[in-house]
Write a structure and sequence with these properties.
The protein is α+β, with helices and mostly antiparallel strands. The protein is built from 3 helices and 4 strands. It has a 4-stranded antiparallel β-sheet with strand order 1-2-4-3. A hairpin with a 2-residue loop joins strand 1 and strand 2. Helix 1 packs across helix 2 and helix 1 crosses helix 3. The protein is globular.
C-alpha cells in the first residue's frame, strides 16, 4: 500500500498555518482540502479535547451558515492528532484565498456569547465535553499566526 499524502509531510518541520493538503477533481468539480494547523506537531502540547470539540461545533456552524461559503463547505473536522482541523471546500483554492474567511470565522468565535450550537444530548454524542473559553483562546492564538502568515505558514515544508 502506498503512503497517503498527509503522512508524507515532514511533521518535524511543519509550523502552524494554513496548507493545501490535497485537491481532488471529479470531472469539472474540484474539492480543496485544507490543513488548518493550530499547533506545531511534536513540539507543542496538542489541543485539549473539549476545546477541540467546541471549535469543531462553532466552525462547522459558521461555515454552513455563511452566505458566501455555505454552499461550498463540504466538511470541517478535527485531526486525530489534535494539532488542527481539516476543511474541505468546493473549488480550486490556494491557502491565501481562504485567509479572510478564516479570520472572519475566528473573529466571530471571539465574539460568540451564546449556547454552543449542537451541544445537547439530542444533537451530539458527547455534548457535555465543551470548553468555550479554551476554544476562544486557541482560535485567538491561531488567528494571530495566520493574520501575519508568511510562506512557512502557507506552504508545506519541502
Amino acid at each position: 500500500m502506498e503512503k497517503i499524502e498527509s503522512f508524507q509531510v515532514d511533521h518535524l518541520r511543519l509550523k502552524p498555518g494554513v496548507y493545501v493538503s490535497r485537491k481532488d477533481a471529479f470531472g469539472a468539480l474540484v474539492l480543496t482540502t485544507f490543513d488548518l494547523r493550530f499547533k506545531e506537531p511534536n513540539k507543542e502540547p496538542v489541543m485539549d479535547q473539549p476545546a477541540l470539540h467546541t471549535i469543531e461545533h462553532l466552525c462547522a456552524t459558521f461555515l454552513r451558515s455563511n452566505a458566501e461559503w455555505s454552499g461550498k463547505t463540504v466538511y470541517f473536522g478535527p485531526m486525530g492528532c489534535r494539532t488542527g482541523f481539516y476543511v474541505i471546500l468546493e473549488g480550486d483554492y490556494q491557502s491565501k484565498d481562504i485567509l479572510p474567511l478564516l479570520l472572519e470565522m475566528y473573529d466571530w468565535i471571539e465574539g460568540f456569547n451564546d449556547s454552543i450550537p449542537g451541544a445537547s444530548a439530542i444533537e451530539c454524542g458527547n455534548w457535555r465535553e465543551q470548553n468555550i473559553d479554551m476554544a476562544k483562546w486557541e482560535c485567538r492564538r491561531y488567528a494571530s499566526i495566520i493574520r501575519n502568515a508568511g510562506r512557512e505558514n502557507l506552504e508545506y515544508p519541502k
